Amino acid sequence: MLSRLTRPQALAVCALPVVALLATAALAPLPFSVAQPGLTADVLGENRGEPVITIKGAPTHETSGQLRMTTIEATGPDASVHLGDVIGGWFDTDRAVMPRDAVYPSGDDVQEIEQYNEEQMRESQDTATTAALDHLNLDPAAVDVDLRLEDVGGPSAGLLFSLGIIDKLAAGDLTGGKVVAGTGTITTGGKVGPVGGVPLKTQAARRDGATVFLVPKAECSDAQAELPKGLRLIPVTTLDGAVDALDALRSGKGEVPTC
Length: 259
Known about the structure:
Elements: H1 7-27, E1 32-42, E2 46-47, E3 50-51, E4 53-56, E5 66-74, H2 83-91, E6 96-99, H3 100-103, H4 110-135, E7 144-147, H5 158-169, E8 179-182, E9 185-186, E10 192-193, H6 198-207, E11 212-216, H7 220-225, E12 232-236, H8 239-251
Parallel strand pairs: 5-8, 8-11, 11-12
Antiparallel strand pairs: 1-5, 1-6, 2-3, 4-7, 9-10
């Protein structure tokens, strides 16, 4: 025979399955990755003691500033991300929770992901070279460009690679001595595309001394959401537009786009 439960007792008994469910949910791995600001690298400088950009077959010029490509760092595809990590990411401006498929579109195998990212980087470098030489009206058969950047994968440095090549080959100085950072894919025709993770990249850029950030125009609102103090956004849609904007910023003549 069951004894009659008082109301507080009944509520306590009913709450036990709910507590167990919440505990299970909190411990269950979720299909997300937690990202944070990653490294930045000056494409006009060196990486591991070697120039990032080496050019043969055409005269190059000294540059005075920096063009820093930006990255994010994310938990690995096999890492366990739980509810607490997701909630913490919502409130922490130095971290972001992203769908794992958006960070690792090639799957969960670490070796395959690394290979995929390396291929994306090589394709981005080739495309960036083509776009830059086309902008300068130089024959790619006569100019040899070698790009080296270790431990970085993906296509998001395309815009900065193109700008670095242009800065070394063209007369003048694109940066005007400033530390300029940015992100964006590039096509052979010079169109700039979005990349994701922009709020974290702006933090990495400001951390490493940048005062100007080139952002794909489609991601202006994302970049403004967590914009660090002292960092100026310049939206771009094409390589030509990015060069024009930097020229206007350096010379003080012409209009510099804003988000």
